[in-house]
Amino acid sequence: MHMAEKATIIVHSGDFDKVYSAMIIGTGALAMGMDVSFYFTFWGLMRLKKGQLEGGPLSKMNFLGIGKWIVRRRMRKAHVRSLEELMRDFIELGGKILACDMTMEIMGIRKEDLRGDLISDYCAVGTYIKEARESRITLFI
Amino acid sequence: MIEKEGNTIKVNCEGETCPVPLVETRKALRQASPGDIVEVVGTHPASKREIPMAVEALGLRVLDISEENGKWKIRIIMEKR
């Protein structure tokens, strides 16, 4: 059977704009026929807590949330899909979401705190390396 | 934004931006059966170039591309090149 090319992306940042970059690259790669896995770790994993997907600050010019408010308003005007919608597209097109279990341990996050509807598995670095070594694209965001 | 009429699947992405036209095209192609035509209409300029790239990467074929007043239409046929 034909094996699709793979993209493996680490989402380390929980910043709103960086999570956006990850989601757009991930859905784009799926749309172009690749298999895609996201590894959510550290601050990125915070975005998989219930109700927190859109909750990150801007990486620059956040200005206590005012910068983010302006950016979101402009995004809505430009018809940019929300992170929640992009996440649904990602899952629908067969993308995989993996959660770092070490981050869960050090940050005191329990499985029930996380979006079980999105996460396909909980894992550690070995799973990432195994997938990354057979990937055409790997990114650390 | 995706609807089927006979053997044509229509995708309307007018006013949508990156990565929506690509993503919706892919969703339509996943629903299509061999021989079906997927017709995507949109206004996002980069997607007019990138949807054919995706079609190529998926091993499918673009039938034709047209554009009028900033609104483009790409027709894709669900058969292997």
Give a verbal description of the structure.
The complex is a heterodimer of chains A (141) and B (81). Chain A is built from six helices and five strands. The radius of gyration of chain A is 15 Å and the shape is globular. Chain A has a single domain (6-140), classed as DsrEFH-like (Hypothetical Protein Ychn, Chain: A). Chain A is an alpha/beta fold. In chain A, helix 1 (16-31) packs parallel to helix 4 (83-92). In chain A, strands 4-3-2-1-5 form a five-stranded parallel β-sheet, sandwiched between helices. The mean pLDDT of chain A is 96. Chain B contains two helices and five strands. In chain B, strands 1-2-3-5-4 form a five-stranded mixed β-sheet, covered by helices on one side. The termini of chain B are far apart. The A-B interface holds A 24, 27-28, 30-33, 78-81, 86, 89, 92-93 and B 15-20, 22-23, 25-27, 30, 53-54, 57-59.
Summarize the structure.
The complex is a heterodimer of chains A (141) and B (81). Chain A has 141 residues and is an alpha/beta fold.
Q: Supply Rg of chain B.
A: 11 Å
What CATH architecture of chain A would you give? 3-Layer(aba) Sandwich
Task: Count every beta strand of chain A, where a strand is a DSSP E run of 2 or more residues.
Answer: 5
Output the structural class of chain A. Answer: alpha/beta
Shape of chain B: globular
Query: Helix proportion of residues of chain B, in percent?
Result: 25-40%
CATH top level assignment of chain A: Alpha Beta
Q: Helical percent range of chain A?
A: 40-55%
